Amino acid sequence: MSVHPRTQLEQDPRLWRASQQKAGHCQGVASGFEALDQLLATSGWPQGALIECHSPLNGIGELQLFAHAMHQCVHSEAALFWVDPPHAPYPPALEGMGLPPKHCFMVRTGSRADHIWTLEQLLGSSAVGMVMGWSRRRDPAALRRLQLALEESQTLGVLITPQEGTSQASPAPMRLALDAVPGANQLRVTLLRQRGGQAGSRTLTLPPVIPHQTV
Questions:
Q1: Does this model's pTM top 0.90?
Q2: What span, in angstroms and rounded, lies between the C-alpha atoms of 92 and 191?
Q3: Average pLDDT of each block of 10 consecutive residues along the chain (215 residues)?
Q4: Domain spans of the chain?
Q5: 71-104 burial code (b ≥16 CB/10 A, e <16)
Q6: Cα distances (Å, whole numbers) of residue 11 to 17, 115, 118, 210, 213
């Protein structure tokens, strides 16, 4: 049986449908990068919408990419959570990024089921300002659970997933591909999809993890 070209197109995970646009205004949190905010439909990171970041490696600048949003979170006295980060946060680096440790929490889970359950509970809590999670593999059904939890709380939710998932379908309203620029403290951010906006890419110069101190 042949497949109609239109059917093939509609099944493409890169396709955004106008019917996916939710009613109402989605709040945005400034990214700290003017060039990126100009590309984002909400002039910043959307709240209540899962941001899935596909990354080939951990530690290529994902924390610096969201550093401004994390700073805004703790500045408003809201809790910031990291779930299963590849490395434990370095307190001096957190202080340098303007993130008081008293507002920052790290959670380690023992299984895939616990990982998803923890993310779901945190993302669905109105007492949490921002959640960043690192997942070793993708599960569209789990991503849908996380998105539904976010819609109830309007928390800022970011999930770092493997790069090979970019060709697979996802219920996440926003999907990014991250790539480090060799020989430079820069990160290439490719916006694969966003709700209410277009795709595009920007090369961003990342701030130092620990700002230089002047004597």
A1: no
A2: 31
A3: 52 48 62 95 94 90 92 90 89 79 90 96 93 91 94 92 82 94 90 91 84 48
A4: 28-205
A5: bbbbeeebbbbbbbbeeeeeeeebebbebeeebb
A6: 11, 29, 31, 44, 52
Q: What is the CATH number of domain 28-205?
A: 3.40.50.300
- Go through the chain and tell me how many residues it has: 215
Alpha-helical regions (H) of 128-190:
140-153
Longest CA–CA span in the chain (Å) reads: 73
Contact 195, 52 (CB under 8 A): no
Q: How far apart are CA 97 and CA 74, in angstroms?
A: 11
Q: Which amino acid is at 78?
A: A
C-alpha span between 70 and 64 (Å, rounded):
9
